[in-house]
Structures are given as structure tokens and as C-alpha cells.
Design brief:
The chain is α/β, with parallel strands linked by helices and 256 residues long. It has helices spanning 56-62, 66-69, 75-85, 96-110, 125-132, 137-145, 155-172, 180-187, 219-225, 228-235, 240-254; strands at 10-17, 27-35, 41-47, 90-93, 122-124, 199-201, 207-209. A five-stranded mixed β-sheet has the order 3-2-1-4-5. A two-stranded antiparallel ribbon has the order 6-7.
Length: 256
């Protein structure tokens, strides 16, 4: 089987959550499979008390109920251990760019744990799959690995399946470079500045709004024209990374 060509560790991860809102929902399970440059593997799975009820519809999907996490640590209590496990890793997952990474970033921010996302590369195996075959993870596992995905929606099973699918994709498509920078760029199908896609780059690599009444306008121009818009966003229910991004833009403009 193909071995990933890595300059530093690559951490595949998957989360199970209370729901699909990346700002208000919480992680109840996270599984991480860390692949080292020499090919060795290290894995960890954490159950987490979300400090909120798990909706029955969510429990029907992943099989985790309130009683299963009642005695587990909160994210604030275990977040630094997860941070340490992910230390110096690039990040990979299945649909991770749109969901897993933003909700994990929100959990770190909520717990006041400083995780530097800017130094990471992100490989989204789902995007790669959509560009090549357009299937679900179970179908991808069957298509590429010739295996049935048992215990689907178990974070541990989904994480390992995602890793195996990526290895099989590298073997199948000769145009895919076995190199994390290439895979990160190939699977990044957006020009988002923040994880939620509220701020995007235009064709001149300038930050513009991607929503609301100022959609398409430069963030710096809007903040000059309507200074209260920044305060409205900072006090609103926006993703913590979105708030970090607009603050950085504001500070950069102020320091010019």
C-alpha cells in the first residue's frame, strides 16, 4: 500500500456532535489517527460531555446518548490534551474543511485554548472524492478499498476509513502528488478566509464580505464606511474564527 510522503505528522480526525450548527453545537466524541513521517501510527479517541442535551435525532445517527457522556470530561477539561496530541500536525478529514475543523476551532476558542490554525495544512478527502468520483464515505470505502464500512458514524471507524481511502486514492490517480501541500491545495475548493466562508478573497487576494448587505465589498472599505458593522459582527453569533479574521483585518489596516 502507498505510504504518505510527509514532512511532519498528519492527523486524520472525525467528530460526532450534538448537531450541525458549527457555532452552537458541541463535540461529544473526537477520534484522531496521527500518521508520522516514518509511517507509524498513533490514535486516540475522546468522549466529551457537551454540557447540553444531545437531541434524539443526533443520537439516532451516531448512537451516543446523554448517559454515555454524563461522566466524561468537558472540552475545557480535556482540550489541552487534544491540543498536545495535535501538536505540529497538519490536519485531514472527510468533509473536515466545512464541518469538523470549524466546530473544533469553535470548541478551542470557547475553552480559551490557543490553537494556531494558520500554520496547518488541511487535506479534505471528501473534496478529493467529489472531484474524482462523487460518493459518500461508505461508497468511497467500498469503491477504493473494496471493503464494507462497518460501524459507520462511529468516529473511530470513519477516521480510519478516511485514512485508507486517501491511500487508495493516491494509488489510483497518478496525477495526485503524494505531498501534503499539493493535497491541501487540491482539496481546498473555496477561497474562504475564515472557516465559515463569511469572508472570502477576491481575484486580487483582497478580503471581501460573502454575505449580507455588503456582500462583494472590501472588508476594509466597509469598516471605514460603517464602523458599527465590526461591532455588530463581534457581538453577533458568528464563528470565533470569523471574529478573529475581521479583527486581524481591522488591526492590519489600523497599523498601516
Amino acid at each position: 500500500m502507498t505510504q504518505l510522503q510527509l514532512q511532519r505528522p498528519l492527523a486524520f480526525f472525525d467528530v460526532e456532535t450534538t448537531g450541525i450548527n458549527i457555532v452552537t453545537d458541541r463535540i461529544i466524541e473526537i477520534a484522531i489517527l496521527k500518521i508520522m513521517p516514518n509511517g507509524s501510527e498513533h490514535s486516540a479517541t475522546y468522549r466529551i460531555n457537551p454540557q447540553m442535551p444531545i437531541p434524539p435525532k443526533s443520537s439516532e445517527i451516531h448512537g451516543i446518548f446523554d448517559a454515555d457522556v454524563a461522566d466524561k470530561p468537558t472540552f475545557a477539561e480535556i482540550g489541552k490534551e487534544i491540543l498536545q496530541f495535535l501538536n505540529d500536525c497538519d490536519i485531514a478529514g472527510y468533509n473536515s474543511n466545512k464541518f469538523d475543523i470549524p466546530i473544533l476551532a469553535e470548541e478551542f476558542a470557547r475553552a480559551n485554548i490557543d490553537f494556531n490554525w494558520d500554520k496547518r495544512k488541511f487535506v479534505d478527502v471528501h473534496v478529493l472524492f467529489l472531484k474524482k468520483e462523487a460518493r459518500t464515505l461508505s461508497a468511497a470505502y467500498q469503491f477504493y478499498c473494496k471493503k464494507d464500512l462497518e460501524n459507520a458514524h462511529s468516529a473511530d471507524a470513519d477516521t480510519r476509513a478516511t485514512y485508507e481511502v486517501l491511500l487508495a486514492q493516491l494509488e489510483r490517480y497518478p496525477d495526485l502528488q503524494n505531498e501534503i501541500t499539493f493535497l491541501s491545495e487540491f482539496t481546498s475548493h473555496t477561497n474562504n478566509v475564515d472557516f465559515a466562508g463569511r469572508i472570502i478573497y477576491d481575484d486580487k487576494k483582497q478580503e471581501i464580505f460573502n454575505f449580507g448587505k455588503y456582500k462583494g465589498m472590501l472588508v476594509t472599505d466597509v469598516f471605514k464606511k460603517d464602523p458599527n458593522y465590526y461591532n455588530w459582527m463581534m457581538n453577533g453569533e458568528f464563528h470565533s474564527h470569523t471574529k478573529q479574521v475581521i479583527t486581524a483585518i481591522k488591526l492590519k489596516e489600523f497599523n498601516k
